Amino acid sequence: MKSFVASVAALATLSAAFSCAPDQASAQSNTVIIQRTNDSQTYDIHRILHRAAAEALFMLSDSLVAIEDDLKTIRPLLAKSWTISPDGKTYQFILREDVTFCDGKPMTAADVEATFTRWMAPATRSSTVINIGPVTSVKATGKYEVEFKLSAPFSELLMQLSQPYAGIIDMDTVNKLGDSFGLRGFNGTGPFCWESWRPASELVLTRHPTYHWGPSFYDNKGPALAERVIWRVVPEENAGIASILSGTTHVTYVFPWSGVKQARANKNIGIVQPRAFAWTGFAGMRVGRPLMSDIRVRRAMIMAVDQAAIAEAFYYGEADPAHFSATPNTPDYDKSIEPKLLRYDPAAANKLLDEAGWTKQSDGFRYKDGKKLSPVLVAQDNTVWRERLEAVQGMLREVGIDLQLQLWEPAVIFSKVSREDIDMWTLFASYASVGDMLSKYFPAKQNYSAFKGAPDQAEPLVKLIEAGRTALTNEERFKYFSQAQHMLVDMALWIPLAHERQLVVFNKTKVTGVKPHSISAVGLYKALDLKPL
Question: According to a count of CB atoms within 10 Å of the terminal CB, is the N or C end of the chain lower?
Fold first, then answer.
């Protein structure tokens, strides 16, 4: 009886979530309901690195520059122009003079300086500050002029300044809210303003009424066409499909893959995707761990995994099998690496493991010097990773590797990844260029680095990455990043799984003006043209 009562209660809760609350929201004029699968722990722009935060931060704040959906072309945003010194160490930005925060306060160069000072301050302990590279100071040199000083050239700076963590915020609000900034309020210059937040349920944003400085690639520069945006958490897959199909929620870029075929057949559903996308699932291997130190083992593990089968089984053909850490449409991707990429070949994998001295025993697993080849992998405990990793686990067992899975809640996963005693970990990697990918996921100092515990092995790769980051010309940058890509392939550090396509799915009876954008894999970016019907 208790089980029955619990089930009834759960159904009542689900009904409330998808019936009463959305009806109330829809009754309010001009509201768009965006479906998401999880929430962020905070919206403090400098203390979070998570797609669930980025998707809202792009609407709440603006950066100095914007990047088009080709993930290459930089456009003005808060800065109307900029100059770069011949040595690449000084950037001078000229700001718009007509920008205001959500509370009506004019934005000036002092706000840019204050934002970056907070971001770069050691006390902030920001995990994203590494992304602005060798920036040493940001100073207001006039009311609407800002100067960036760098200790070395940084070819990726403008691209990094378009990302979610580079938004400008009002420090008066930060000081007023203290540790509650991003939890109880937010004051930015974006097209939408903070109204309310119920964690793990919904984030409500309202239109910034005086906004008119949107990126040039939107038809509407502002104000936004929607009066309100509600980011609603719908974690369960079947409920997520039903919610979009019924119009209970209006648009999403995380539509369950199992429902895409059904959605394509529905005349009321639209599906669009941006010109470029960059969102790769992978399993990383630590070269400093005893079981992972032999490159033959790492290469064998890569060749034991059938990426095409994973793309078909779990993405229903809506993803591309991944054989490298970045998609071929990524800026600075070097196609000359492709003949070297490892592909599914279990016979070759078995041969390499034999050569490495790992012998199959009667239980079907491999042993060497009395030790079992059973690497430990940590990952988020959710349906997406659980299903995919169980498939990978089965594939590795076919060649005698007993992969041990440790699945943890998203809130603690990064602390688990940072442990010294794990062999492998997983991430979905978002990146804007090859240089961005290399910088984020391979330097020795990163907690989830392949070189944690073996920083000396990282040195050759890090030198190439730094040379590319500090290059003064596109040709020079490509040369070094090309060499880094070849080295990355040769070192066999990742098991690439799939390049997810960015699909934005929407109910055509509820919303129009959907313009997809894959920056940080968030799908909707500023949503200035998004209009409820």
Answer: N
User: Burial of 73 by CB count in 10 Å (0-12 exposed, 13-18 middle, 19+ buried)?
Assistant: exposed
- pLDDT tens for residues 439-479? 878 765 555 678 887 888 888 999 999 999 999 999 999 99
Written as six digits, the tokens of 21 are: 């609350």
CB 282, CB 494: distance < 8 Å: yes
User: Which CA distances in Å does 85 have to 125, 141, 148, 305, 468?
Assistant: 30, 16, 11, 48, 18
* CA atoms of 474 and 472, how far apart (whole Å): 7
User: For the domain with range 20-273+503-532, which CATH number is right: 3.40.50.720, 3.40.50.2300, 3.30.200.20, 3.40.190.10?
Assistant: 3.40.190.10
CB 112 within 8 A of CB 64: yes
Domain formed by 279-500, architecture: Roll (3.10)
Q: What's the whole-number mean pLDDT along residues 71-81?
A: 95
The encoded tokens of residue 24 equal 């109330």
Count CA atoms within 13 Å of residue 7 on its CB side.
Answer: 4
Cα 225 to chain centroid, rounded: 26
How far apart are alpha carbons 200 and 68 in whole angstroms?
30
Q: Which of 317, 221, 311 is nearest to 528 (CA)?
A: 221
Residue 330: closest CA among 253, 436, 474, 427: 436
